[in-house]
Amino acid sequence: MLPKVVPLFIGLIFLSHFQHSLAGNVENEIIKKVVKSYGGEILTSAKSITITDYNKGPWPGQSENPGVPEIWRINEVLTIDLKNKRKSMLSWRVSRTSKDLDRFVFDGKKGRIDDILNQRFAEQEWLTYDSVGRSVSGRSDTMIAHDLILGKDVITTYDGEAMYRGVVHQKLKVKLRSSAEKILYIDKISGLISKVIRQHPRAGELIYVFSNHKQSNGVSFAQDMNFFVDGSLRLISVDRDIEINPSLEDIVFDLTPYEEWGEVFDTSVLSVNELADNVYHVGKDGSYTLFVDAGDYFIASGGEGTLKSNFQAVKTFSGIDKPLKYMIVTHHHIGSVNEAIELGASIVAASEHITTIKKMLPEGNENDVFTSVNDTIQLGNGAVEIYDIATAHSEHYLVVYVPRAKIVFGEDHFGTELKTAIPRVHKDMVTFGKAIEALGIDVERFIDAHGLRQLSITEFRGATNAYKNVICPKGYQICEKG
Length: 482
Description:
Blueprint: H1 5-37, H2 41-44, E1 48-59, E2 70-81, E3 86-95, E4 98-106, E5 111-115, E6 120-123, H3 134-138, H4 141-150, E7 154-164, E8 167-176, E9 182-187, E10 193-200, E11 204-216, E12 219-229, E13 232-244, E14 259-260, E15 271-276, E16 279-284, E17 287-293, E18 298-302, H5 307-318, E19 324-328, H6 337-342, E20 346-350, H7 354-358, E21 370-373, E22 376-379, E23 384-389, E24 397-402, E25 407-410, H8 427-439, E26 445-448, E27 454-456, H9 457-465
Parallel strand pairs: 6-14, 18-19, 19-20, 20-21, 25-26
Antiparallel strand pairs: 1-2, 1-13, 2-3, 3-4, 4-5, 5-6, 7-8, 8-9, 9-10, 10-11, 11-12, 12-13, 15-16, 16-17, 17-18, 22-23, 23-24, 24-25, 26-27
């Protein structure tokens, strides 16, 4: 005779199996409803799709004033050749004083970026079928519905009901391939997606809000999309549209007759370059620090997030074990400040930026770690000179000048990955160059905090002299409004 506990155990197993089966049925019914609401077979049998996504929004830390976000406009049109696994995304970006018109392409085998304004191209290994236009697809409720039924390795879990904007919504947890889990809020009556939530490991909670749905070619899409990052508004939709089975005749997948930009540096390995006696440029992966040996100590600038590792590398390379006394913050991008304080350094910053920097510091370090710059100062008995200038990127920008090496070190104004070619020029670089000329200092090289390229004064002037105001090329509707 079986003990009495066994029938109870068997009953629990049966109940668990029944509940799992019921949950699976609920998920399937929700997915069927979503697919039907977004066009059914018209969507699922589509051979190609074009998504128009024009938006604008605040980008913290990108304006000339650290307390005010810069408003960027980004117009993007993504065409997906679903049948042949190709993508082509046209992108028009307007930020500060810069304008860029690029095409990001995956032709079925490899990826590239076409710089339309300069008629150059560069092959990019990181561009794949999945990565081209990923953010545009992620902001499209229609593509979320499409991938929900046709995506590979999709795991869905019913997460109950919730009220959203006074209406009952069914929540569905969705895990697609190796991407982060998303929670979809689906209107219980209409089957349309109203909101998507996912967690980002660094940025926090990401929320996409979809509304004002309409149909195009029998397929539904949200005309309005608002995107929030950790509770702060990041993007507002300006114009959205979708086209099913568009003609691909005018879509550029094949290589256009542009000249290649040229060879780029491999920055994946940590490098230490001695620019002159006791002057070093150290880093990797777009984060480089300038170190100047001033006798009894080092002076540094740059190296966001990698200052400690860069400092250890320069000490090992030089065989010199000296403290870091000064860390120069060129403007209001201040990711290396806490590392500098942990190393015992004083923060050298424009007086107008100190309040902003203090907000980033641990308690107890707010008042005694600053060296303020109002116009110009010297550090290390003249080993480094600092000048406060105004640029398009910052009302107060600290130029780091090393007289004995005749170099200027800077961030976010003249950097390039190209080994030898003249870099793509924006108005920020032109404004920066004029400010340097006005200082009257003897400069031979420009060293960047985000790359290995050393621009000679001749190369720098050649680039800025070639700058022309950006005009939208004829035939490109994406940028015709500037």
